Amino acid sequence: MTMMEWDLSEYEDPTLYDLENQGNPELPMLLAWAKKLEIEGRPVLDLACGTGRTALPLAEAGYSVIGVDLHAGMLEQAHCKTSAGTDIRWVQQDLTQLQLEERSPLAYMTGNGFQHFLTNELQNLLLQSIRTALTPDGILLFDTRFPAAEELLQPPVEEYWRTIEIGPEHRCDVYTIATYDPVAQVQHYTTIRRFLEGEELREERKTTIDLRYTYPQELARTLEANGFELLHLYGGWSGASLHPSSPSMVAVCRRA
């Protein structure tokens, strides 16, 4: 799959992306694994790194980081946020075709990036590619939204999601329309962003994104089939147990 075949419209405004995606709930678990593996001097691999939301704090904590993403604009934003002397490299590559110069003992993917790989074939290509980028017994962590009924059975109508404060008297009201295909296990989202100054609508943007939902036992079998041993399957980055109301699943697996 080449770059031109991916729908990246949701990520065309990296500055807005940063406003919409703040905080680092993943960081404590990532730092704990980096410490456990004693990886000082060896790179941590941030897959689908975006604008560096988690890669930059890891590098600032003293780790060497390689951030990989397909989107040139997101990587440019990450470059702009990088302080001089930070041990971090930004690389533009397709995650299903990784060609990195060195292997990493620890790789991770946050932001539910796993869901962008919509078919079994793409999931296999992704995991096989990551496996080649890891050292023997290397660790991979990633999250994916939990396929709860209330998550998938949303009515296909426009619904208010949230408001992003952009500046004084400027905000962005975000709405979504979701349609689930149970055969493909793919949720089709249309996101509508309405930019307002005071109460006056200044601009409206629509983007689309498709997300694959994978069930827990299906995920375990997929990992095993692609050369990974599933060590833990948590109900979020806090390390809580997985249960029916978990918002996401966090897989911790070892290259077998």
Automatic annotation (TrEMBL):
Molecular functions (GO terms) = methyltransferase activity
Cite the Methyltransferase domain residue spans from the record: 44-138
Any Pfam family: Methyltransf_25
Q: Does the keyword Transferase apply?
A: yes
Identify the keywords attached in UniProt to this record, alphabetized: Methyltransferase, Transferase
Keyword RNA-binding in the entry? The reply is no
GO BP: methylation
Q: What is this protein called?
A: Methyltransferase domain-containing protein
**From which source organism is this entry?**
Paenibacillus dendritiformis C454
